[in-house]
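Budget justification aside, the reviewers requested a transparent look at the raw inputs and outputs of the sequence design task funded under Objective 1. We therefore reproduce one unedited record. The lines immediately below are the structure tokens for a 157-residue chain.
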């Protein structure tokens, strides 16, 4: 049974399921941010556990293969080394899961913070969509909206 799961989840299949699996969380964040379902399943640790499981599976697959983990530290040597790392499917998948997880966590934080400040859910739709696509810019747009609702600029809040 475990061997069948291992053989089913190739890098391409895992990429497909990670991308497909994260969409329901984002749809709930965007369209139902005030629902109990969002609070229990989306802005909790639940999606992070699922994505961590996928990340651990990739690490396991790469450990069984011939992946050189030490070469990951080459990314600090320069842009060309980083480019070379991205040519490896295992590293690219690790990066992608990392990217998806951080963006989803940020989207969950935006929803929780907007509820704390009583920001209109329609107003956070644009920052959530942009956070899904290009995380830091969506967070910045939310921060600009947040300034008007909190009536202050806090760099540490």
């Amino acid at each position: 049974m475990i061997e069948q799961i291992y053989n089913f989840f190739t890098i391409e299949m895992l990429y497909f399921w990670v991308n497909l699996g994260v969409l329901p969380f984002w749809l709930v964040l965007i369209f139902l941010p005030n629902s109990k379902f969002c609070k229990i399943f989306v802005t909790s640790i639940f999606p992070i556990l699922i994505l961590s499981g996928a990340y651990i599976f990739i690490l396991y697959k790469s450990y069984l293969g011939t992946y050189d983990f030490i070469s990951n530290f080459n990314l600090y040597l320069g842009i060309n080394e980083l480019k070379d790392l991205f040519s490896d499917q295992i590293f690219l998948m690790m990066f992608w899961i990392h990217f998806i997880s951080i963006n989803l966590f940020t989207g969950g934080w935006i929803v929780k913070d907007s509820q704390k400040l009583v920001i209109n859910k329609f107003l956070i739709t644009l920052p959530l969509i942009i956070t899904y696509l290009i995380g830091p810019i969506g967070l910045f747009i939310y921060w600009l909206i947040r300034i008007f609702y909190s009536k202050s600029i806090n760099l540490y809040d």
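The mean pLDDT is 87. Helices lie at 2-8, 11-31, 36-42, 46-64, 79-86, 89-116, 125-150. Computational costs for records of this kind are itemized in the attached budget.
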